[in-house]
Task: inverse folding
């Protein structure tokens, strides 16, 4: 099928990453009439082995590149007639942002700005310029963000809503807040059609094992320490990644331009309770006596600027778009643990760094 035969040509950035690969897979499989162009720089967190099951699909194209590269972006928009963007590419690890804030500002802020400017120039007519073909799909710039832009909550019943004031506390969350503001500014200033979603902590298959859940699964399996910040009292709202991908699908197709949608799991856990639940499930699956891995818990000095509690109010997307999470955490965590234990080759390739060579093997570069 030629590129002109597709109903839509959607650029998904960061599509080789954890959340991005699930979104790419969903769109490629569910919408054969769409061409999906997956743009990823393939930093340490980008892994094309996440997408081996769809890499030969006729409506899938991979492009390696940096979202800060304006010339490359302009060529992609031109060559593939890009009419929509789902922007997930980002540096996302808080600890790394504390050590290297400039990289987070470059990618998350300047990269988003380069994408916005490319979309503006491609989709919106210049003064006296050619008007966009009204028969073509309405363009959309969909920016996927985080609940961390809102700051922290206390141990009460308050929740982050779409109207919560921004109050970022880490270089990572500050960079995402800035990118959110640029997206809204491009709508207000230029009329660029945009939508934003802010999600809670994701978990599930293909997550890079520097993050808590896959790290601890691997450590339990190998009887390594489970480092817990402070006393483990910090609270997070957890969302199964495939439920997040479904929400992104709904927001893309049915969300209102210029609106924000919070996506959460209605699923708050103290870190220490989450870890003990993981231990119980993992020990059972591994055939260990119950509680065996509890001795692996090691309390370490708390992270700088560690927000106390995040919790999303996802009522808006639930009421307006009919979305709700499909899995409770106990079911989702068992499914996740079994996936990692059933995919030890993937885990070994990631932890060893061998996955970094997959692009060269596939594309000969």
Result:
């Amino acid at each position: 099928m030629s590129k002109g035969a597709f109903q839509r040509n959607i650029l998904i950035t960061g599509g080789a990453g954890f959340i991005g690969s699930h979104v790419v897979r969903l769109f490629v499989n569910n919408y054969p009439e769409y061409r999906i162009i997956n743009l990823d720089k393939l930093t340490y967190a980008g892994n094309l082995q996440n997408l081996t099951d769809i890499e030969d699909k006729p409506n899938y194209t991979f492009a390696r590149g940096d979202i800060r590269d304006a010339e490359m972006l302009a060529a992609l928009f031109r060559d593939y007639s890009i009419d929509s963007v789902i922007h997930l590419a980002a540096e996302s690890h808080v600890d790394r942002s504390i050590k290297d804030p400039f990289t987070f500002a470059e990618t998350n802020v300047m990269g988003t700005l380069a994408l916005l400017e490319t979309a503006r120039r491609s989709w919106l007519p210049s003064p006296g310029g050619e008007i966009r073909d009204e028969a073509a799909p309405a363009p959309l710039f969909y920016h996927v963000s985080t609940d961390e832009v809102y700051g922290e909550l206390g141990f009460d019943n308050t929740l982050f809503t779409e109207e919560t004031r921004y109050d970022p506390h880490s270089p990572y969350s500050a960079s995402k807040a800035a990118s959110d503001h640029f997206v809204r500014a491009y709508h207000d200033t230029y009329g660029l059609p945009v939508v934003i979603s802010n999600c809670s902590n994701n978990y599930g298959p293909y997550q890079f094992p520097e993050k808590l859940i896959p790290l601890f699964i691997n450590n339990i399996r190998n009887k390594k320490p489970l480092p817990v910040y402070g006393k483990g009292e910090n609270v997070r709202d957890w969302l199964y990644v495939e439920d997040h991908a479904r929400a992104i699908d709904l927001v893309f197709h049915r969300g209102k331009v210029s609106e924000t949608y919070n996506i959460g799991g209605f699923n708050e856990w103290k870190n220490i309770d989450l870890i003990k639940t993981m231990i119980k499930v993992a020990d059972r699956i591994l055939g260990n006596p119950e509680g065996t891995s509890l001795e692996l818990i090691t309390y370490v000095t708390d992270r700088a600027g560690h927000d106390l509690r995040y919790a999303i109010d996802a009522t808006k997307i639930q009421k307006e778009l009919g979305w709700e999470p499909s899995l409770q955490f106990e079911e989702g965590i068992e499914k996740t643990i079994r996936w990692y234990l059933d995919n030890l080759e993937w885990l070994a390739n990631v932890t060893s760094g061998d996955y970094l060579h997959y692009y060269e093997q596939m594309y000969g570069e």
